Fold this protein.
Amino acid sequence: MLFNSFIFIFGFLPPTLLVFYLLGRFNQTWAKIALTVLSLAFYTWWRPIHLPILLFSIVFNYVIGGFIQRAYAAERTTAVRVWLTLGILVDLGMLGWFKYANFVVDNINLTGVNLTLAAIALPLAISFFTFQKIAYLIDSAQGLAGKVSFVDFSLFAAFFPQLIAGPIVHYQEVVPQLRQRIFARLRGRNLLIGLVMFAMGLFKKTVVADTLAIYANPMFAAAHAGHTVGLAYGWLAAVTYTLQLYFDFSGYSDMAIGLGRMLGVKLPLNFHSPLRAASISDYWRRWHMTLQRFLVAYVFQPLSLPLNRFVIMRDMTGWSAFAIGVAIPVFVTFVAIGVWHGAGWTFALFGVMHAAYICTNEAWREWGQQRRRRLRRAGRTVAEAGPASLLAYHVLTLMAVMFANVLFRAKTVGDAVSVWGGMTGFHGLAGEVPGFAWALPVVIVLCALVVFLAPNTQQIMGRFDPAYNWDEWKSVGRAPLSWTWKPNLAGLAFAGAALFFGVIFIERGQAVFLYFNF
Amino acid sequence: MTRLRAIPASLAILAIALSLAGLACLLPDNPYQRWQLLHGTMFDEARWIYERCHYDPAPIDIAVIGSSRTRQGVNAPRLQAELAARGIRVNVVNFSVLSPGRGTDLAIVKEVVATKHPRLIILGIQEKPDRNGHAAYKYLADAATIVHPGFGREFGYLADVGYLPFRQLRLFLARLAPGQSGLRAKFDPALYAGSTVDTTGTTRVDGEVKFKGDDPAPEDLLYEEKQGWEARKGSDDSLPKALRDYAVADERRYVALITSLAKADGAKVAFLYVPYFGGPSVPFNPQIYQGLGPIWSADFVSDHPEWYADVVHLTRTGARSLTDWLVAPVAATLAASPPEAPAGAAHP
C-alpha cells in the first residue's frame, strides 16, 4: 500500500488510528497486537506472497537476538559471536538471494559459463527490514538491546510507517517508546503534529516530485533511446532528477515520520536539507541519514579502526596512510551504499563515484589543515572562507551530486555517459530536448528556491520536537528564510492547503516512491 | 512547549482541506478541453465526439451509443450509405466508446441531444450490465452531474467525486494557459476526423494499436475465451438473489435517464444487443429495457466464430454483417417517425 493512495489515506489510516486508540484505552498489549497485524496487512497489500519472508525475518531475528542477549548477559563472548555471525549470515543470505542472485548469475554468465536461474521477484522493502534486523542483532551483541517481548519486537519490526522505506530505526530508538505507559493513549498533540508533517510530505511527493518526474522520465528515456544529449538537455535532466529524488524520498520520509508521530512514536530524521550542504561529507550526513549512519557504524568504523591502527603501528604517513586509513574503508562503505540500492553496475559505480568524492573531500580537508598549521607556525593568521569560497563549495558539491545522480537514474552506464557527455558539452550546446516545455524552467526555479531558501519540514515543525533526534539537528543548516508552524489561522490554512493539494494530486496518477525499488 | 488545542486544530485542517476540495469543484472549465482529457488513451475519440456535436454543422439523425461491442459492431458510414441506398438520407454516427458502463453514455447523450436533436438513439446493451461504472465518466461528465447524478449511485461514486477537485483545477489552469496544458481551447478543423467515422476493425491512437479488430481469433482460442468469460461474468447468478437487483440498479437508472432525456427531445430509443461469441440470444435482464424501446437482438452473429476478433468483439467483417442486418429495423423505425422538419442541408 502506498502512502500516496486513496486506499491508504481514506481506507487504511483512519480505521487503523481508530482501532489502535480505542484498544489502547483498555489494554496497551491489544493495541500493540492490533497495530502489528494492521502493519502486516499494510505490507501484504502490495504482494501477499512475500509476507512469509517478512514473518520469517521477524521470528528468526527475535529468536537469534534472544540467544545473543542471553549469551551477552552470561558474558559468553564466543557464543555471542557465533549467534551474531549466524544471524547476520542468514539475514544477508536472504538479502543476497532475493536481491543479488540474478545479478551475480548474469555476470558469471558473461564469462561463458551457462548458469540458469529464474528471475527472482524482489520482496518489497527487504533491504530496509534486513538492515533494521542486522542493527538489532549487533545492538544485542553490544548490550544496547535488552530483553524484549515478542509483541514489542514484532511491532518494532513491522511498524508500518517505517516498514517499507525507512527511516531505518534502531531498537533503542523505538522499543523504549513502545514500552512507555502512555503509548497507545490518544494524545491530540501527536495527531496534530503527525498530520501536519504527513501533509507536507504528501505535498512534496505528489505535487512536487511527481511533477518533476513528468519532465525527468522522458529525458532519461530519450537518452536511453539514443537521442543526442546536448548541454542544456544534459543539465536539465540532471537538475530535474536530483530535485525529483530529493522531494520524493524526503517527502516519503516526512510522511513516515508524521505517521509514526500520529501513532505516538518519534522516528529519526532521514533528510536535513542535504542539497544545501557545502561539502560532500556534509551532504552524506544529511542525505538518507539513517542508512548512512547504519553503514558508518557497521561497515566503515569496523573497517576504519583496525586499518588506522595498522597505519599507526607501521608509522605510515602521507598518501599510503591515507589510502589505507581512509580510502579503503570509504570505498568499501560507499560501494556498499551503492549496491544496497540495487543489483547493477550503475549503482556500484554510483558508490565508487561518491567514494572518490569523499576521498577528495578528505584529502582537501587534510591539505587545508596542514596548510593552516604551517601558516600558524609561521605566525600568520588563516583567513576564514569568504562568501565566494563558500558559494563555490556549495556549487561544487551540488554539481558532484548531480553528476552522480545521473548514474543513479540511468538504466545503463551507457545512458549515463550519454547524459554526462551532454553536461560537459561534448555533444554541442543544443542537442535535442524532446517534449521540452517552458514550464520546466519555472518548476526548477521554484523548487530551487524552496530547497535553498526555505526551512525544511522539521525546521518548520521545530517548536514541536518533530523527530527522535531533533535535538542533534535543530541548530544545523538553518535556512536563509525562517518560518515555524503554529496552530494559528495561517498555520492551519498552510496545513489544510498542503493536505488538499497533496491528496488531489494523487489523482494525477500514482507513482511509486523511488525508494520502493530498493 | 507550546500549548495546543490539538484535536480542534486537527479537525480544522481536515475541514480546510475539504473546503478547498469543494471550492475546486466549483472552478469553471472549458468543456472542449474536458473532452480532450482522454486524448491519447483508449478513449481518444472523446474529443471527436465533442467536436462532431459542437463544431460540425452537419446534423446527426442516428447516434449509436454504447460500449466496445457496439463500437466494434456498427459501421456508421456503412449504415448511412445503406440507408441512403434505400432512399433514407440521414447522418449516422457511432459514438460508442471502449469499455462498458453507462455514465459516459449519459454524458454523450446529453451532448448529442443538446446540440443535434437526433431522431434515433441506438443504445448498446449486453447480456449483463457492468456494475462498475465507466472509466471515462469522471473525465468527461460535467461537474454537477458527477456530484449529483440524479440518483444515489452505488458504484464508483466516491472515485468519481474524488477525482473532481483535481480535474477542475487542471481544467481551470488549462483555461488560463492552454498552450502549457496540451488541451486546445479552440477547434482546429485541420485535426478534425470528419462527420462520420468507421469505428470498426483495428483501432490505432497516434499510430499505436489500442484494439485489434481486423482478423478473427483462432476458433479454439475463441472457445477457450468463451469458457473463461462465462466463468467470470457470463451468467446472472454470480450474486445472491437479493443482491441481483442492486447490481443492475445503475443500469436501470442510467437507461431511464438516457431514454427520458432522448424522448423529451423527440428522439426514439432502441436497444441493440450484441451477444458475445456463443452467448444467449437475449440479455439476462430484458425487463430493464422493456417499455423504453425495442430490443434489437443481433443474436445471429453469436454462432459465427469467423466474425469475432475476440470473445466479445466483432471483426470488421462481422461488423459489416451486423450493420447490414441493422438497416431494416432502423429504416422501419425512421419510417414510423418521420422528421418533424426537413432534413438539414448538410446531409450527404
